[in-house]
Amino acid sequence: MVSLVVTLGSGAMDIYSQKLAEKLDVPKVYTDIYQRIARRLNISWLSREALKAIREDWSFVKALNKLNGIVHLPNQHLGRYGNFLKIPYIITVHDLIRYFDLKGYGTYIHRPNFRDKFYLSLDYKGIKKAARIIAVSQATKNDLVHYLKIPGEQIKVIYAGINHTVFKPSPHLSNFEYPYILFVGSEHPRKNLPALLRAFKRLKEQPSFKNLKLVKVGKAGGPEADFRRQSTKVINSLNLDGEVIFTEVISKEDLRAYYSNAECFVLPSLYEGFGFPPLEAMACGCPVITSDSSSLPEIVGEAAIKVSPHNIEGLAGTLEEILTNRQLRESLIAKGVGQAAKFSWEQTAEKTLEVYKEVEGSFS
After folding, report:
1. Which helix (H) or strand (E) element contains residue 359?
2. Per-block mean pLDDT, blocks of 10 residues, the chain (364 long)
3. CB burial class (10 A; 0-12, 13-18, 19+) of residue 168?
4. Which domains are seen in the chain, by residue range?
5. How far apart (Å, rounded) are the C-alpha atoms in residues 280 and 20?
6. How far apart are CA 22 and CA 192, in angstroms?
7. CA 161 → CA 15, 281, 347, distances in Å?
8. Which of 347, 268, 272, 220 is nearest to 94 (CA)?
């Protein structure tokens, strides 16, 4: 028997576990442990919060060890607990973003402090000890093989899904009376928002795009850095005050309307383990531009225009083409709806259940 750990929260990795819980008829363990992990990033070892975390972590490990059979840890940051489990476990890895920050390969989110380095190291040791690993994209599997030296046969690629009852063309208008480009996501360095802002600035220099705005949906990021201040600094330096609209977190219904009414959706990320927003945008009938890096090309297929995340000129030119070429827009919209339809939570759950049965068989 496999028990699924379900993390409470509204992030992409939380939604993954919650959607599996909806679709799978298996025992579930509901917890807010991952929310607490995220909230405590960049705190000191000597803080009261750090001591409280140790007690809570140990309680969580004890609770898992009381389960019978096998446990499924639904994201890589629960790998730290795998090191202390007496029962076999499956783990889903969504990306190695924090691994790259840990190793100093770049700043994708934030350079970890001493405490975070310790915990992140435990995460990646825990991944290696799993009975089976689920990767949400081929790109993530390739990273696990390359960076963590995990044998490919230990890893099963199972794409995440999107909610097609929510994400579909909306009859409702957005709250905006002007044309807009849409960006959905955090303001972590890996999201590459400054590149989009610089490309947007080039468009705004043309009189025909005088009324065009950039709408940015989602929280700035976690507590480990002031990501909004970094974004605002770039906006001010480009004299784009009043041209970029921040909406923070919005309802699914509003998000659907924002996607459906946007001129286009843009995600110029340096790294994505999967990338939900491009598929959500496609499902809502919105043309998509993404970068040609990490998992994005395999997720969007031929249904989006892919550009180098480092090529500001190329991104600006692509934006202009989508905004002015009706035939191209209609072609992308039609392809996008078909591409998004390939990703469903029913399919994710079905393939995950196959992994459960394989692992159960190996321990019976």
Report:
1. helix 345-363
2. 95 96 97 93 93 96 95 98 97 97 94 96 98 98 98 98 94 86 97 97 95 96 92 96 92 94 97 96 98 96 97 96 96 97 98 97 84
3. middle
4. 2-161+344-363 (3.40.50.2000), 180-340 (3.40.50.2000)
5. 18
6. 33
7. 10, 13, 8
8. 272
